[in-house]
């Protein structure tokens, strides 16, 4: 014969207590209290009916610090520099949730997130942000700017009329970047080339944009004395006037100059510049090869 369950035994015991008391108002109150006490004492012995064991929390901070740093870098670091972009809410904002987990997590992660390269001025591919009044660095709080170690200055976008935000005034916040060590400069085009003749606008010469870029570089050097290395990469030749002007200014300031991977890859036999851009495309099609005497082939019908 099957034995009754403890739950049924508890209910039966509570009912027996109720039946054992009279039906007067005073006794009914005592009856209810006694029934609750009996049910509580009997149900305490009933084991949990859950079929799966309880999930134990993972003690993440018990991991070695080296392992935690690797996890942080895997989650927080991006392939491209941080910039104002319409897709940040999908690719950047979810990563920032990690900083809000706890005070200790914030202390260990915010330096890693802001150690990646931050673009000083928005790229023209990012739509409305290109003409913003407040670049990304201006929007970052000062205590986070102190953790930035590398910034990128992209030159060439909007060369005919640079946006008003492309300046190194105090509002940009460079003076707060006390740990900044590396400046990466990428030159997309050099408007001093003859191909831009007639497109520079009224009052502009071949040297106008070069002077503008040198002023930006000088402003960065003046506000960031901790800067040590300047890396220059480009989609133009290494002997382009803009690159030569930037090189002169970096060497004059005493900073370490490093050429980027594109310029290194395009170099041939020392300092000979490689073919790039349109010239590279023409070379691939063989349009720049010397014209040889045509070969005449007779075809019989």
From TrEMBL:
Residues 7-16 have a biased composition (Low complexity). InterPro entries: AN11006-like (IPR038883). Residues 1-32 are annotated as: Disordered. PANTHER family: F-BOX DOMAIN-CONTAINING PROTEIN. This is Uncharacterized protein.
């Amino acid at each position: 014969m099957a034995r009754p369950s403890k739950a049924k035994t508890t209910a039966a015991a509570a009912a027996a207590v109720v039946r054992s008391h009279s039906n007067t108002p005073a006794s009914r109150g005592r009856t209810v209290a006694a029934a609750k006490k009996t049910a509580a004492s009997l149900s305490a012995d009933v084991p949990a009916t859950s079929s799966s064991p309880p999930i134990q929390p993972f003690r993440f901070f018990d991991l070695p610090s080296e392992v935690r740093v690797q996890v942080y870098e895997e989650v927080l670091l991006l392939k491209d520099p941080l910039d104002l972009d319409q897709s940040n809410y999908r690719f950047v904002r979810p990563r920032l949730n990690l900083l809000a987990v706890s005070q200790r997590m914030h202390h260990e992660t915010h330096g890693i997130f802001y150690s990646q390269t931050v673009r000083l001025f928005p790229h023209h591919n990012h739509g409305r942000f290109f003409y913003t009044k407040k670049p990304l660095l201006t929007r970052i709080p000062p205590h986070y700017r102190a953790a930035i170690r590398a910034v990128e200055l992209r030159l060439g976008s909007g060369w005919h009329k640079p946006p008003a935000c492309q300046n190194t005034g105090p509002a940009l916040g460079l003076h707060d970047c006390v740990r900044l060590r590396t400046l990466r400069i990428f030159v997309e085009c050099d408007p001093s080339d003859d191909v831009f003749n007639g497109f520079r606008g009224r009052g502009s010469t071949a040297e106008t944009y070069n002077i503008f870029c040198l002023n930006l570089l000088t402003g960065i050097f003046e506000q960031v004395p901790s800067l040590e290395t300047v890396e220059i990469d480009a989609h133009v030749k290494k002997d382009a006037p803009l690159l030569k002007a930037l090189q002169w200014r970096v060497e004059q300031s005493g900073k370490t100059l490093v050429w980027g991977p594109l310029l290194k890859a395009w170099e041939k036999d020392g300092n000979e510049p490689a073919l790039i851009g349109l010239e590279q495309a023409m070379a691939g099609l063989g349009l720049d090869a010397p014209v040889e005497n045509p070969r005449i082939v007779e075809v019989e019908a």
